[in-house]
């Protein structure tokens, strides 16, 4: 599972989730991408479940790029604890994904296989998604 090797601060602010993604809106590495249509936090377990669903369907063929990383910690207090007395302990890791961000990319498989792999992966994710191709979404070729 994806977790940071080390962090400067164990507890972070929640942050803002409004607006579109600033970067990562193009299909850069593969031929097809899975774009987020809404903004949400995606946990490291959800990312891993989506990756497994895609690779299993593609029968280990092709290549998958994960373009999001869970670098933000979220906290929670134990059940039955009263309010106050500080922030809770770090519970897990999330990747804040804004609208328009390309989360996964695939190359080396036909379009129908990529579509179905992304459809299976999208069921594991808490965001609405859209299938995009490199040509139609403004990505550039990596032929250098």
UniProtKB/TrEMBL annotation:
UniProt xrefs under CDD domains: Ribosomal_L16_L10e
GO MF entries: rRNA binding; structural constituent of ribosome; tRNA binding
Claim: Ribonucleoprotein is one of the keywords in the record: yes
Pfam family, one: Ribosomal_L16
GO annotation (BP), single: translation
PROSITE patterns listed in its UniProt record: RIBOSOMAL_L16_1 (PS00586), RIBOSOMAL_L16_2 (PS00701)
SUPFAM superfamilies xrefs: Ribosomal protein L16p/L10e
HAMAP family assigned: Ribosomal_uL16
Its job: Binds 23S rRNA and is also seen to make contacts with the A and possibly P site tRNAs.
PANTHER family given in the database record: 50S/60S RIBOSOMAL PROTEIN L16 (PTHR12220), LARGE RIBOSOMAL SUBUNIT PROTEIN UL16M (PTHR12220:SF13)
Protein name stated in the entry: Large ribosomal subunit protein uL16
Organism: Eremococcus coleocola ACS-139-V-Col8
């Amino acid at each position: 599972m994806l977790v940071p090797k080390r962090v400067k601060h164990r507890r972070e602010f929640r942050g803002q989730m409004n607006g579109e993604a600033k970067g990562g809106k193009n299909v850069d590495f593969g031929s097809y991408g899975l774009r987020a249509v809404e903004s949400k936090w995606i946990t490291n377990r959800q990312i891993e479940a989506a990756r497994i669903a895609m690779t299993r369907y593609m029968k280990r063929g092709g290549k998958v790029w994960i373009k999001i990383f869970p670098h933000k910690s979220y906290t929670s207090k134990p059940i039955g604890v009263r309010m106050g007395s500080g922030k809770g302990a770090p519970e897990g890791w999330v990747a804040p994904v804004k609208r328009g961000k390309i989360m996964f990319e695939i190359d080396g498989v036909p379009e129908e296989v990529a579509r179905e792999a992304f459809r299976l992966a999208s069921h594991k994710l808490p965001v609405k998604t859209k299938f995009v191709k490199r040509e139609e979404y403004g990505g550039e070729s990596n032929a250098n």
